[in-house]
Design goal:
By secondary structure, the protein is mainly α. Helix content is about 65%, strand content about 5%. The chain starts with a helix and ends with a helix.
Length: about 375
C-alpha cells in the first residue's frame, strides 16, 4: 500500500510539473475538409509533381534517409511517416512544408547546421506550420484583408488608412504564425532526444553570418528586436531571444547522443561548399567556413573551399593566402585533384610559374579525364 501511494504521488507530481503546452492534435491520413483547403491541396499536388522531376533534386538514398531520420526523431515516428521529403540543391538557408504534407529542404540549410539537433529544430518548425494548417489560415486571412481593401476603395472616400491597416494586419498575422511555429517546433525538440537550446543556436549563427555578409560588402550590421511593419517573419534577434528564454525555462538537460550529421554530410560537403562559394559572398562564406571549422577543425574540404574563396576574390594578398590553404589541404594527404588545380592557378597568378605548372601537372596526372584538361594543358605548356 505504501509503495502504491508513493508511486501515485510521484506520478501526480510529475504531471503537475509538466507545464509544457500541448502539441497539436495528431491526425493520421488527414484529408482536406473545406473548399478552400481542397483548392490549396490541389495546387500543392501540382507543385510537388514538378519537384519530383526537378534536375536539382538530390536523390541520394543515404542523405535522404539521414534527413528523414532527424525529422522522425524530432516530431515522432507516427507524425513523420506520411511526409514526402525532397532535398533541393539550392545554396540558401531554407526549408518549407506544403499544405499536402510535402517537405522541401534546401542544401544550404544542411550546410549551415552543425548537428542533428539544429537540423531538427528547423524541420520541427516547418512541420509545425503543416500541423497547425497555417497555409490555409494565411490564405483565408489574406483573402479577408484584400476583400476589405477592395470594398473600402469603392465605398469610402480617402480609404488609404483602412487599406494600410489591413495590409499591416495581414503581415502581423504571418509573423504571429511564424512565432507559433517556432514554439511548436521548440516543443517537438524539447520532447525529443535533442537539446532544445539548439533552436536558439540556429538563429545566433544566422545573425553572425548576416553580420559578416553586410560587413564584407562595406555595410553596417543592424539587428533589431522589433520586426518592420511589412515584415513576414520575426527578426532573427527576436527569435533567438524568446527561444533561448524558453530553453532556459524548460531546464532541458539531456544526455549526449551519437551525432551522425558530419558523417551524413561527408560526401556532399565539397559540393555544397562549392555552391556556396559561387554566391559571391566573401564575408558570409568566410564566416560560414570558420563556423564549420569550430566543430572539427579545418578539414580538407574546408581548406579547399577557403582556397577557392580567396582565389576567386583574387587580390594579390588573397592569392598568397589561397595558395597556403591549398598547400595545407594537400599536406593532409587526402586532398582531391581539384586542390592541385586551385593551387596551380593561384601560384601562376602570383607569378610563381614553375611551381604553378608543377601543381597543374599533378592535377592532370590525378584526373586525366577532367573536362578542363585541354585548357590546363595549355597553361602548362
Amino acid at each position: 500500500m505504501v509503495g502504491l501511494l508513493l508511486a501515485t504521488a510521484i506520478g501526480t507530481s510529475a504531471l503537475a510539473a509538466d507545464k509544457r503546452p500541448p502539441l497539436p492534435t495528431y491526425t493520421q491520413a488527414y484529408t482536406p475538409t473545406t473548399v478552400d483547403e481542397r483548392g490549396i491541396w490541389m495546387q500543392s499536388d501540382e507543385q510537388e509533381r514538378t519537384w519530383r522531376e526537378s534536375r536539382s533534386l538530390i536523390r541520394d538514398v543515404s542523405l535522404n534517409a539521414y534527413v528523414r531520420g532527424v525529422l522522425c526523431r524530432t516530431v515522432g515516428d507516427d507524425r513523420c511517416k506520411s511526409v514526402r521529403l525532397y532535398i533541393d540543391e539550392v545554396p540558401e538557408f531554407n526549408a518549407f512544408m506544403t499544405p499536402n504534407g510535402a517537405m522541401v529542404v534546401w542544401s544550404g540549410l544542411l550546410l549551415r547546421v552543425r548537428n542533428e539537433a539544429e537540423l531538427g529544430s528547423v524541420l520541427g518548425h516547418e512541420f509545425g506550420h503543416f500541423e497547425l494548417r497555417h497555409s490555409l489560415l494565411r490564405f483565408q486571412n489574406r483573402r479577408s484583408g484584400t476583400d476589405l481593401m477592395a470594398w473600402a476603395s469603392v465605398l469610402i472616400r480617402n480609404s488609404g488608412d483602412i487599406r494600410y491597416a489591413a495590409q499591416g494586419q495581414m503581415f502581423s498575422f504571418t509573423r504571429d504564425q511564424e512565432r507559433e511555429a517556432d514554439m511548436t517546433g521548440f516543443q517537438y525538440l524539447a520532447r525529443s532526444q535533442y537539446p532544445s537550446s539548439a533552436a536558439a543556436d540556429v538563429w545566433d549563427h544566422m545573425m553572425g553570418e548576416a553580420d559578416a555578409t553586410v560587413i564584407g560588402r562595406k555595410g553596417k550590421s543592424q539587428h533589431q528586436y522589433v520586426a518592420g511593419f511589412f515584415a513576414t517573419h520575426p527578426t532573427d534577434l527576436m527569435r533567438a531571444t524568446y527561444l533561448r528564454a524558453a530553453s532556459i525555462e524548460a531546464h532541458d538537460v539531456k544526455p549526449p547522443v551519437v551525432d551522425t550529421h558530419q558523417a551524413a554530410m561527408a560526401k556532399w560537403l565539397p559540393i555544397f561548399l562549392n555552391d556556396q562559394i559561387k554566391l559571391n559572398d566573401f564575408g558570409g562564406s568566410e564566416y560560414l567556413l570558420a563556423y564549420l571549422a569550430e566543430g572539427g577543425g579545418w578539414t580538407t574540404p574546408l581548406l579547399c573551399a577557403r582556397g577557392d574563396l580567396y582565389r576567386e576574390r583574387g587580390n594579390p594578398r588573397d592569392l598568397v593566402s589561397a595558395a597556403q590553404f591549398y598547400q595545407e589541404a594537400v599536406g593532409k594527404g587526402d586532398a582531391p585533384p581539384e586542390a592541385y588545380r586551385g593551387l596551380g592557378l593561384a601560384l601562376l597568378r602570383s607569378q610563381q610559374v614553375a611551381e604553378g605548372q608543377a601543381a597543374l601537372a599533378t592535377y592532370l596526372r590525378l584526373k586525366p579525364a577532367a573536362t578542363d584538361a585541354a585548357l590546363i594543358a595549355t597553361l602548362i605548356s
